[in-house]
Amino acid sequence: MKLLKDFFYLFYPNICANCNEQLLQNEKIICVFCRHDLPLTNFNSYTNNKVFTIFYGRITIEKAYSLLLFRKEGITKNLIHNLKYKGNETVGIFFWKLAWRNII
Predict the structure, then answer these.
(1) How far apart are CA 39 and CA 60, in angstroms?
(2) In a domain, 93, yes or no
(3) Is the distance from CB of 74 to CB of 67 less than 8 angstroms?
(4) pLDDT for 11
(5) Among the residues of the chain, which ranges form H helices?
(6) Total domains, the chain
(7) pLDDT tens, 31-74?
(8) Is residue 64 included in any domain, yes or no?
(9) Is 67 within 8 Å of 94 (Cβ atoms)?
């Protein structure tokens, strides 16, 4: 069975959702290099962070959180583009798992 799977990946390899390089066997969705370069916000509080202060006073808000920083050209933009316009639902699952590990 592994031989058939390896033969399949020879013609249809898994590629990184950011840099389009071929993923190694244990990598999923994005490669190790792109995962290392993710611009995490490292917000430790729902009420004492930049997102909360931006919206405070403009709308009624109790909590705000951002997982990644967004830049016009960057990994976050590429991943959101893959999710939204290319229908790559695995990116959404990746975001969910990343958020779950960082929030809890």
Answers:
(1) 28
(2) yes
(3) no
(4) 76
(5) 2-11, 32-36, 50-55, 75-84, 89-103
(6) 1
(7) 999 999 999 888 777 777 888 888 888 998 888 888 888 888 89
(8) no
(9) no
